[in-house]
Design brief:
The protein has 66 residues and is an alpha+beta fold. The protein has one domain. 32% of the residues lie in helices and 29% in strands. Strands 2-1-3 form a 3-stranded antiparallel beta sheet, with helices on one face. A hairpin with a 5-residue loop joins β1 and β2. The chain is flat and about 30 Å long. The protein starts with a helix and ends in a 7-residue tail after the last helix.
Length: 66
């Protein structure tokens, strides 16, 4: 039963697109941002990392600072 609970939590992972506030760098993460230096952008969450990666080009139009 414990194994089933562990598997279900892994299987239901959500992915988020976040942007660093100063550099505007975007990336996909598995946990909702809690730090104030990162800002969640785009829809609330994605069910797969592939879906999130595809949307990075759409929601992260600004290029990172160099």
């Amino acid at each position: 039963m414990v194994a089933a609970m562990m598997f279900s939590s892994v299987a239901s992972a959500d992915y988020y697109i976040i942007r660093e506030r100063t550099t505007k760098e975007c990336k996909v993460v598995e946990t909702k941002p809690t730090e104030t230096t990162w800002l969640q952008i785009g829809p609330l969450s994605f069910k797969t990392s592939d879906d999130a990666e595809k949307q990075v080009a759409v929601v992260c139009k600004e290029k990172p600072s160099q």
